[in-house]
Amino acid sequence: MDTQNPIAPCPPRSGVMHENTRHTTHFVVIGNHLAQHSELSGLAIGVAVHLQSLPTGTPADIKSVAARLREGTTRVAAAMRELETHGYLRRERVRTPNGRIVTRTISCNQPGAHAQPRQPSRKPTAPPRKRALPAVPKPSYPAPALLQQATDVLAGLRRHDRRLLLSESDTAHLAPGVAAWLERDVSPTAVRAALTTDLPLEDLRRPAALLAHRLTDRLPPAPPFRTPATPLPPPPPLRMRNCDGCDRGFRPTGTESRCRDCRTPTHP
Predict the structure, then answer these.
(1) Which residues, other chains included, contact 52 with Cβ-Cβ below 8 Å and sequence gap of 6+?
(2) Are the beta carbons of 197 and 157 closer than 8 angstroms?
(3) CA-only gyration radius of the chain, Å
(4) What's CA 175's distance to the chain center, in Å?
């Protein structure tokens, strides 16, 4: 009777089997901490793998990623938020050399590896002081009525451009400059036009500083001196004479020889 082999062949193992081929070009290394992340959704893991495989400089905004992955922008945006929460994605707003502000997307294949060391705590510093406004011209005689008229001109600038809404302190600083213009025979309408014409199209960070510069840079010259007209000499006094009727003294305005009483007809 033949003896059977006591060692039976092992049955095939269940689960995933790997058939690996070594990559030499066009590949990316993905850590198991990402591929097997227990808190990320499958779409978030796929978006992270896709971002790590892109060359530097490839557009990585939500619409571009959604178009390449054939997913909706809402789902891709939610996946990117997951990656930001767990440190696999970072988005920063930077200013380009030409002044534009763009969003830069940074994909991190190992969160926390490039974290900057914590700086020692510093004492809280005082907030930066507000820069003082440029000086403005001063009127030779700051009459209260003149300053009030200048304040009214400044308060009305916001009706012509909403960016020229001035604070009370800025108005008090600029009012003498407007009063200097009004003192030089410039009408309030002309002052308003000089301050509101050809303003920049972008937002005004310090409108009061711009107005102060215009009040100084565009100050018109003083009006020419006018010699006051010579007043007429007073008329000579009327000479006294005696009335031919009553011999009373009076001052005739013409060639009268009788006083007023003698010239008035008497009633019986």
Answers:
(1) 28, 30, 107, 109
(2) no
(3) 47
(4) 22
Angstrom distance (rounded) from CA 75 to CA 14: 34
pLDDT exceeds 90 at position 266? no
The runs of H, that is alpha helices, within 141-259 are 144-155, 168-183, 188-196, 207-217
Q: What is the Cα–Cα distance from 79 to 72, expressed in whole angstroms?
A: 11
Q: What is the mean pLDDT of residues 67-90?
A: 89
Classify 36 in phi/psi space as left (phi over 0), alpha (psi -120 to 50) or beta: alpha
Neighbour count for residue 261 (Cβ, 10 Å): 12
Q: What is the pLDDT of residues 213-235, one digit of tens each?
A: 999 999 999 888 766 667 778 87
Terminal Cα distance for the chain, rounded: 192
Per-residue pLDDT reduced to its tens digit, 179-200: 999 999 999 999 999 999 988 8
**Strand, helix or coil for residue 39:** coil
SS3 state of residue 230:
coil
Q: Report whether pLDDT(117) > 70.
A: no
Question: What pLDDT was estimated at residue 267?
Answer: 40
- Show Cβ contacts of residue 257 under 8 Å, excluding neighbours closer than 6 positions: 241, 243, 244
DSSP strands (E only) in the chain: 89-95, 101-107, 241-242, 249-250
Rounded Cα gap, residues 232 and 222, in angstroms: 29
Residue 115's pLDDT is what? 60
Q: What is the pTM of this model?
A: 0.41
Are 108 and 88 spatial neighbours (Cβ–Cβ below 8 Å)?
A: yes
